[in-house]
UniProtKB/TrEMBL annotation:
Protein name: STAS/SEC14 domain-containing protein
Domain of life: Bacteria
Organism: Candidatus Tenderia electrophaga
Amino acid sequence: MINAELLRDKGILVVMPVDTLEKADFERLNLLVDPYIEEHGKLTGILIDAESFPGWDDFASMLTHIRFIRHHEKKVERVAAVSDQGFLAILPKVADYFVSAEVRHFEYQERDRALAWLETGLKVD
């Protein structure tokens, strides 16, 4: 399950995986972001707020996740992965092969820095 919030004034989608990811989660995300992208052309960023990564419910869920990424990857400027878990820490290196968005990892306690970076794209100290 994914909790999600679209910060419309900033063009930032905040996603918080709280349980194994299901196909319906990504269908709900599409319904949330597609109208915004249709109106504004893009998202400024996506904040993945995941203290830990719960994995996928099944193979269909993983495929739906991949389709979501492929459909939106050229419409997102930046992605911030906020997590202390090793899997998401390597996300920026892996993402370079699959997405055009700039991807950065932040430690879990650096959520505010991650959000500031998404908003501006500037280095945040």
